[in-house]
Amino acid sequence: MEQAQKRGLTRLLLRWPERRAELRKKFARDPGFAELCEAYEVACEAEAYWTKSTLPVGPARAREYDALVSATEQDILIRLSLS
To answer: What's this model's pTM, rounded to 2 decimal places?
Structure first.
């Protein structure tokens, strides 16, 4: 799933442009951080899917994935602060 890791990193680079160097460095050196980037990508994709869904459960699922995106961002920020 290396491509999902890279897409997640790209999302984070766009989300926090002031932290680009820090994000790239951590991604290159920390496999666990790369896995967090992948988790972030998957959560963002799922949130987008459910946001567009016309199913009755769509809004609730979108909120769940939005919370997961936020929690993953917090995990990423914590991991960056431990560098």
So the answer is: 0.93
Q: Which of 4, 3, 15 is nearest to 43 (CA)?
A: 4
**Secondary element (H or E) of residue 76:** helix 58-81
Query: HEC states along 4-73?
Result: HHHHHHHHHHHHCHHHHHHHHHHHHHCHHHHHHHHHHHHHHHHHHHHHHCCCCCHHHHHHHHHHHHHHHH
Please name the residue that has the structure tokens 């994935």: 65
- Where the chain has pLDDT below 70, the residues are 1, 83
